[in-house]
Amino acid sequence: MPNPLAEFSACECKGKIYVVGGYTTRDRNMNILQYCPISDCWTNFELCDVHIRKQQMLSVEETIYLGVLDEVHRAVNLPRFFPESVVVFETMQI
């Protein structure tokens, strides 16, 4: 990863690894990071409008699902991203 993170989630989809949420050594991580193992390169895939925390992330076929809770029981509404019509970030009620 470009910078150390704590309390983040990661999963693989279509041969790339996506990292969401957590904290850097100085602040909240607002970036969705993408890692390509073929080119050994990290990129800032997307910027979140809200800090994602207390999250779980999983990939089913070509969709990434992101379950997020804020203030323990209140679900956070997150935007949906359609990069290259491959990966979709969504919220799920936990």
UniProtKB/TrEMBL annotation:
One Pfam family hit: Kelch_1
S-adenosyl-L-methionine among keywords: no
Key words of the record: Kelch repeat
Keyword Transit peptide: no
Record-linked InterPro entries: Kelch-BTB_domain-containing, Kelch-typ_b-propeller, Kelch_1
Signal sequence coordinates: none
SUPFAM superfamilies membership: Kelch motif
Record's protein name: Kelch domain-containing protein 5
Source organism of the structure: Chelonia mydas (Green sea-turtle)
